[in-house]
Amino acid sequence: MNPVELCNQLDGVLPQTQCTKCGYPDCRSYAAAMADEGVLPNRCPPGGAEGIQRLSSILMASGRQLPPHLQLEPECGIERPRPVALIDPKTCIGCTLCIQACPVDAIVGASKQMHVVLTEWCTGCDLCVPPCPVDCISMVSATENRTGWDAWTPEQAALSRARYHGREDRLEREERDNNLRLSKKAEAKLKALNEIDGAASQSVARETERKRAIIAAAIERAKLAANKNNTK
After folding, report:
1. Domain extent listing, the chain
2. Parallel/antiparallel/unpaired status of strands 107-108 and 116-117
3. pLDDT tens string 27-54
């Protein structure tokens, strides 16, 4: 199995919460690390123990040798009921930092207005909590005692993946459009400066020509005066 196909299969059984708890920027990056770099399949708390089994089965089918009885890597977190974010409307100051942090656009709102979490979109990634300057976001359980893949479905994972990549595409498009806008603005400013420089150059040239004419006239007068003196 080639690395791309292996990466696709591994990515297909990850929960797509995009929480970065595995130590990678998104689920796809973790899948690529397992496929290309030999990273172990025990770094995904949202997938839990069942997730480890799913990933291990794919890796071993590809010929990978894995340590027996893999447990979730403690530094990555623990398997837990899936939470969703809840924003306290009395405390929220509308700073938009949580909106910027959400990997699936599950938080809506505007600057200086209260934000709201779309709980059906929230993956429970916790990424909105650290940047909040007023600690108005709490994570509350949405699945009672159900954890891992008992608290998350393949359909939810597929939707989360689509929202994540949709957000990435939007951010890339916005950055591209902004760079184009700044480029056009810089070009217009450069053109204006060139026009100013051109006008200044013309003004300097006219002034130089005027001075030359004055000097030439003075020389001519001096010659005429000299000729008159010589004829006396």
Report:
1. 3-76, 83-152
2. antiparallel
3. 999 999 999 999 999 999 999 999 999 9
Question: CATH for 3-76?
Answer: 1.10.15.40
Looking at the structure, give the CATH architecture of the domain made up of residues 83-152.
Answer: 2-Layer Sandwich (3.30)
* pLDDT grade for 229, boundaries at 50, 70 and 90: low
Of 196, 135, 153, 174, nearest to 46 by C-alpha is 153
Ramachandran category for residue 53: left, alpha or beta (phi over 0 → left; psi -120 to 50 → alpha): alpha
Lookup result for tokens 């480890």: 52
pLDDT value of position 231: 61
Number of H helices, E strands in the chain: 5, 4
Cβ-based neighbour number of residue 196 at 10 Å: 10
The answer to whether 129 and 84 have CB atoms below 8 angstroms apart is no
- Give the CA angle between residues 111, 27, 159 to the nearest 5°: 65
CB 98 within 8 A of CB 128: yes
Model confidence, pTM: 0.78
DSSP assignments along 94-146, one per residue: ---HHHHH-TT--EE--TTS--EE-TTT-----TTTTT-TT--EEEEESSTT-
- pLDDT digit string, tens, across residues 111-144: 988 899 999 999 999 999 999 999 999 999 999 9
| Measured distance CA(128)–CA(162) in Å, rounded | 19
